[in-house]
Amino acid sequence: MTTKSLVFIPESLTKKNQIITLNHPNYEENNSDITLLLSDGSDNDEQKVYWIQQNKFGKSQEGSNLTVKSTFYFKTHELQKGGIINNDSIYFSTDYDLAFSLLSHFYKTHKMDFISKDFESKFETLNDLHIGLFESNNNWKYINKNLLKKSLMKLCHSIEEDLGGDTMEVFFKMTDVKLLEFFEMKIEKIAKDFPQRLLQKINNMYPALSIQSERIQEQAKYFYSLQLMASLVPFKVYEYVNAKFRTSLYPDFVNYIEVDYKKTIEQNQQEELLLKSAKSLNQGLQSNVPHESGSTKKKVKTKVVPKSKGLDSFFKVKK
Fold first, then answer.
1. CB 38 within 8 A of CB 143
2. How far, in Å, CA of 4 to CA of 8, rounded?
3. What is the pLDDT of residue 68?
4. Are 14 and 49 within 8 A, CB to CB?
5. Distance between CA 169 and CA 126 in Å, rounded?
6. How far lies 112's CA from each of 100, 105, 176, 249, 265, in Å?
7. CA distance to 38, 39, 49, 85, 130, per residue, from 20 (Å)
8. Hey, how many other C-beta atoms are within 10 angstroms of the C-beta on 275?
9. What residues contact 24, with CB distance under 8 A and at least 6 apart?
10. Residues ≥6 apart with Cβ < 8 Å to 63
11. How far apart are CA 79 and CA 85, in angstroms?
12. Where is the Ribonuclease H2 subunit B wHTH domain (predicted)?
C-alpha cells in the first residue's frame, strides 16, 4: 500500500524536475543520504537545487515509524477540495548550495592539502572533476556542468588556458583562501538575519553579553553562524575554519568568552566565598556569647488592694 505524503515545493519549479540522492555532506557523522530536488534549468540554463527535508509532528513511544497523527489538506477558497493523509510527516524544500557536497567530496578524496599535509592536490579540468564525482555517486550525472562550474568557482582557484581555435579550458584547485571566503560570505548572510530565538538562548548563556560593545555582539552572531553550518561539513574542515576565524572574524567575542566571561565567573565565585565567610563569622560570634547556667526569677512586688465590701455593704442595714 502506497502512503501519500504532503510536499511543499517552490512555486518557480516546472513540471520537469528530477529527484536524486547524494551523500550527506557531513558523511562522517551522518550516514544517511540527502534528497535533492533539481529544476530542469533548460529555460534559462541555470539549474536550481533544493533540499527536501522531513518534519514529523507525531511522536510515538512504541516506535518511530508508527503514525500517531493524520494530515488534513484543503484549498483555501475551496474547502471541499481536500482530504486526509494517514501520515504525520510533511516534507519541505529549502535552497541547497551544492558547494557543500563538493567540499565534502574534496575532503574525502584528499584534495585539500592545506588541511591534510600528507597529500598534494593539483589543478583539474571541469570534465575530470565531473567524472570523479560521478564515480563516487552516479547521481552527479543529473547536475549540469554550468551549475557544477558555478559551484566550483566558490571553492576553487581557477585558471583559464587557451587551447587555440577559440577554445578555453578551465582548471580548478581548491585553496584555503577560497574556502575561507566561501564561509565568510555564508556567515555574514546568516548573521544579517540571525534567528531571534537562538540569539535569546545565547544571551541566556552569557548574561553580560547584552551590555558589551556592538562589535562583540556582532561577532557573537558570526561565531554561532558558523556553528549552524557545522553539521554540513566534515569536522576537520570545521575545525580548520574555526581556528582561522578565531583570530580574524570574531577574535573579540572569543576573548570575551575566554577572558571576560571567565573573570565574571571567578568574581561571582569570590563573592559567594565572601558571603559564606561572613555567614560563618557571624555564626562564630553568636556561639561565643556567654549564656547563664540557670535562670532566676525576679521577685514581683504586689500591691495589696483593700478588700471591698461589695454590694453587701450597700444592702446591709446600718446600726
1. yes
2. 13
3. 55
4. no
5. 8
6. 14, 10, 8, 22, 40
7. 8, 11, 10, 24, 16
8. 10
9. 30, 31, 32, 33, 34, 104
10. none
11. 15
12. 100-239
CB neighbours of 75 closer than 8 A, spacing ≥ 6? 81, 82
User: pLDDT (tens digit, 9 = 90+) per residue, 157-216?
Assistant: 999 988 777 778 999 999 999 999 999 999 999 999 999 999 999 999 888 898 999 999
Residue keyed to cell 566534515:
234
Parallel, antiparallel, or unpaired for β 89-95 and 6-8?
Answer: parallel
DSSP string spanning 46-91? ---EEEEEEEE----SS-TT-----EEEE-SS-TTSEEEES-SEEE
Cα torsion through 277, 278, 280, 286, rounded to 10:
160
- Residue holding cell 557523522? 29
CATH, range 97-174: 1.10.10
Residues in the chain, total: 319
Domain spans in the chain, listed from the N-terminal domain onward: 1-96, 97-174, 177-259
